[in-house]
Design a protein that fits this description.
Elements lengths: L21 H16 L7 H15 E4 L2 E4 L11 H29 L1
Antiparallel strand pairs: 1-2
Helix pairs in contact: 1-2
Length: 110
């Protein structure tokens, strides 16, 4: 994660929301890894089971389609989220504008 600069920032294009906070997500994953590394070989089965249940609650979300990994929305294109957002808006506006202009010109010739 550090090699790909996934340690700070937000994946929101217009405003920052807690569910898109990359820093919080990185902190949770780092803390989870640290907890796993701290488990001693002589730890009881109950201690290991409790730790694994805690990690499961931290790392997974349970939705209508089953379990899914907890990640900030838009992490796949981070840090270019704003660029993709404006690119899609410009593409949509130009498609509507030129589509309307093309139909208007087509019907104007008839």
């Amino acid at each position: 994660m550090e090699a790909n600069s996934l340690t700070t920032g937000n994946t929101g294009a217009l405003w920052d929301t807690p569910n898109q906070d990359v820093g919080f997500w990185h902190t949770n994953l780092t803390a989870s890894l640290h907890e796993l590394e701290q488990v001693k070989p002589e730890a009881s089965q109950l201690e290991r089971s409790n730790l694994l249940m805690k990690l499961r609650e931290t790392l997974l979300d349970n939705g209508s389609y089953g379990d899914s990994l907890t990640v900030p929305g838009g992490i796949s294109v981070f840090p270019f989220n704003t660029l993709f957002f404006f690119w899609s808006i410009i593409s949509l506006v130009s498609t509507v504008f030129f589509g309307f202009f093309g139909f208007w010109r087509l019907f104007d010739e008839l």
